[in-house]
Design goal:
binds aspartic acid, 12 strands, 10 helices, 38% helix, eight-stranded mixed beta sheet, alpha+beta, four-stranded antiparallel beta sheet, single chain, Glutamine Phosphoribosylpyrophosphate, subunit 1, domain 1
């Protein structure tokens, strides 16, 4: 009997050792990893000129290199996410920071959020018009205020007080994005959903650092021709951004109203937590099986705590990039 008990405990012990050392879902385990999106939309290989494809790919590569270097040199996932998003915000190519789309009244109103997966700390800003890098303001809200979400003039006042760069609103003017607004206004009354979809370009990043901490961030100009100080999903924790070391980090892009109503980023985390789905399965379930049937267009990038990624979208394309400690680099725009 004693022998039997001993044997049983040896078997149980070896089983639990195997369980804890095996990466979740039998996939890979990487010391650090980073995934980026630059917006999802119905862009086709024919609709983006080869020169523009090169420009987008070069910027995604630059952002990816910067983030990976930070992680490789023992930097935090928080620093990596902020710096990666700063690069994309400073580029006129993407719908965030310098490249933000225009509201109905020809202004720019920017939203951003950031979340850390260890303590579930989060910060966000919404509807800001003069903060050069909204993701840095979101980080400041998380680290230097007792709040999670600040909006409008109050958010700008706070950003100024903590020393962030405040710019004249004209900094956000780009001819390309202004022309998009004109085109949407000219076609008002017609179905502009296709046009709207082509114009998405929110940016987001999720990183896993060597300490095992996940961080996710998202920054956007919202949707062209938005009215009434409309705010999308990007600054809403649980909708456009979420991070939890126990499950995953998520950054979303797409038709924000759907992402808010379906609590997309948190839903992916919840599927992993309660149903034990892998990050890929959870992202697929929400983007393809929940959002697609109701015309909720867009996508997500996610990382689990082992550095496994999901880059799931139900549009024709999504600017996206991934790399990890092993150098499993992916940089893509269109569906495979
Ligand atoms: N999700 C953003 C919003 O609705 C837009 C986008 O991702 O393109 O504000």
């Amino acid at each position: 009997m004693k022998k039997l008990l001993l044997l049983t405990s040896i078997v149980l012990l070896s089983f639990s050792c195997q369980q804890s050392s095996e990466p979740s879902n039998g996939l890979t385990k990487s010391e650090y990893a980073l995934v980026i999106h630059g917006g999802a939309g119905n862009m086709s290989i024919e609709s983006v000129s080869p020169e523009n494809q090169d420009r987008y790919l070069a910027k995604l590569n630059e952002a990816l290199d910067t983030g990976i270097k930070i992680l490789e040199e023992n930097g935090s996932s928080l620093d990596a996410v902020e710096k990666v998003i700063n690069i994309l915000e400073d580029s006129p190519l993407f719908n965030a920071g310098k490249g933000a789309v225009f509201t109905h009244h020809g202004t720019n109103e920017l939203d951003a959020s950031i979340m850390e997966g260890d303590k579930l700390n989060a910060g966000a800003v919404a509807g800001v018009q003069n903060i050069k890098n909204p993701i840095s303001a979101a980080r400041a809200v998380m680290e230097q205020s007792e709040h999670v979400l600040l909006s409008g003039d109050g958010a700008s006042e706070f950003a100024g007080l903590v020393g962030l760069e405040i710019v004249d609103p004209s900094y956000f003017f780009t001819e390309r994005k202004f022309n998009n607004l004109i085109r949407v206004l000219e076609s008002e009354g017609e179905d502009t959903s296709e046009l709207q979809l082509k114009k998405m370009g929110t940016v987001g990043c999720v990183a896993l650092d060597k300490l095992g901490n996940l961080c996710a961030g998202t920054s956007t100009g919202g949707m062209t021709n938005k009215k009434y100080n409309r705010i999308g999903d990007s600054p809403v924790i649980g909708a456009g951004t979420y991070a939890n070391n126990a499950t995953c980090g998520v950054s979303a892009t797409g038709h924000g109203e759907f992402f808010i109503r379906y609590a997309v980023a948190h839903d992916i985390s919840a599927l992993m937590e309660y149903k034990r789905l892998s990050v890929e399965q959870a992202a697929y379930e929400v983007i393809q099986n929940k959002l697609f049937p109701v015309n909720g267009s867009g996508g997500v990038v996610c990382l689990d705590s082992n550095g496994n990624y999901a880059m799931e979208f139900n549009t024709k394309g999504m600017f996206r990039a991934y790399d990890n400690a092993e150098g499993d680099r992916i940089v893509k725009i269109f569906k495979d």
